[in-house]
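Apologies for my clumsy wording, but could you write out the amino acids of a protein and the tokens describing how it folds?
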Amino acid sequence: MFSVEMLKIKDEINKKLEGYTLEVGVLADIPAKFARKEQKPFHGGVANKKGKDSPVPLRAVLEKLDAIYNILLGPWAKRDNMEVALTVREMIADMNKTSADKQRFLNAAQAVVRNPILRGEYGDNSPQTQAVKGFNRLLINTGTLFENLKTRLAKKNV
């Protein structure tokens, strides 16, 4: 299974995770989707509507894109990434592991990886790709990858 261990920011924060590790990525076995030529509104822009399943697993798509753009670990290294600060504050504020606090933390961690994609921080599509997609949103075509970038706390293997 493709997963990326995250948050090796500081030892004291990791200790507060009490036997858990944060995993970010495509956490379910699902196929990528082919795009249809129709568009839909999608998180402040547009995306193509989803078509038939691709024979390529979505995790393989993520692995390829992550090798090029470093979308899973890169956002954590940016000092000015507001989501990182929010996530760290959420972790330190209350690590009682109540379901509501845990979910708030997971949502904040997910935003760390997703928001740079929505802001277009990875650049633009090539003119050829823009022509095929019908819009210029790098890392978003049907939205399947974006929607499936998830986070979870998993028990550490000790």
Confidence is low (pLDDT under 50) at residues 1-12. The helical segments are 11-16, 58-69, 74-77, 82-93, 99-119, 127-133, 144-147. The two ends are 18 Å apart (CA to CA). Residues 99-119 form the longest helix (21 residues).
